[in-house]
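Intended use. Records like the one below are meant for learning the mapping from a protein sequence to its folded structure. Do not use them to infer anything beyond what is encoded.
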Amino acid sequence: MQDRTLTLIQDDGKEIVCDILFTYHYEKLNKDYVVFQVRGNNEVSAAIYHPTEGGNGSLERIETDEEWEMLEDLLADYANSLDAEGGCSSCQSCSGSCDSCHGCSDEE
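Structure written out for the chain above:
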């Protein structure tokens, strides 16, 4: 199974582990995006992804309304597809996405 996590490092050196929900290439702007959820809470965010050799890559902040609106639409579609697949109904930490669940009562 491919690793579906990323680690954000804050200015103070604190690491935040996130689960990658999905990636997306936006043809119109020729940019790659990663949409992720902070592990342990319901916070979902996204960033522009710049791949580098070795597979680590770098992230860049999204600053345009057009990009945020496009990603919000994709996230809504993603959430709807999880509902249609019957994701775990009692999960609070992953909002129904058992693929990235780390505390779902369905798995205990």
